[in-house]
Amino acid sequence: MALGNRYKSAPGAGTLAALILVLVFGSPWYSTWANDNTNANTAGGYFLRLLAWPAWTFNSNDSLREIIVGDLKAILLVVLTALFLYLLPGSQLARARGTISQFFAGWAAFIFAAGFAALLTTLFLANPSLLGAMRTAAEGTGYGLFVGWIVGLASLGGYRGTR
User: Fold this and answer.
1) Per the UniProt record, which residue ranges are transmembrane (predicted)?
2) What pTM does this model have?
3) For residues 21 and 48, is the Cβ–Cβ distance under 8 A?
4) DSSP state of 57
5) Rounded to whole angstroms, how far apart are CA atoms 100 and 70?
């Protein structure tokens, strides 16, 4: 028997969806597969490669700083998604659970989180620049726009955290 919506918080479900997206599609195995087996000049290939945007790696030869800075985008994406899901008022103001405002609040939270994660990650690079920060933020928001609907669907129908 599946748990009903009364046990699912919208921010928790959206954060869990973001974590799964980052862990599965940001993994080195998926990134390698997507680059080797898809065509970037098709819509399907573009989307499958876009899913790998918050790529993370783990190599025992790297220093701790290299691991943290390299994976910071993926970590910040999940943390900022949780933060924005709690802060966005769309689903708090909705009269009933499952309304379209929860979907858009989850989607928007993921767009904002991806943009800010990319922007903040740029600050930790060796030679950060304003242009580089703008470009990475644009890549992040593009990722959030095309993938964030998954987080929006996950947060749809849940309650707002406190009961």
Assistant:
1) 12-30, 67-88, 100-120, 140-159
2) 0.84
3) no
4) -
5) 36
Helix (H, G, I), strand (E, B) or coil at 67: helix
Number of structural domains in the chain: 1
Distance CA(129)–CA(98), nearest Å, equals: 42
Kindly give the residue spans of alpha helices, DSSP state H, lying in the chain. Answer: 10-25, 28-37, 43-50, 64-87, 100-122, 130-155
Q: Is residue 13 part of a domain?
A: yes
Cα 82 from chain centroid? 10
In a domain, 115, yes or no: yes
Instruction: Express each pLDDT in 16-64 by its tens digit.
Output: 999 999 999 999 999 999 999 999 899 999 999 999 999 888 777 777 7
162 belongs to a structural domain: no
Domain holding 130, by residue range, is 5-155
Q: Note whether residue 160 is domain-resident.
A: no
Position 94 pLDDT exceeds 70: no
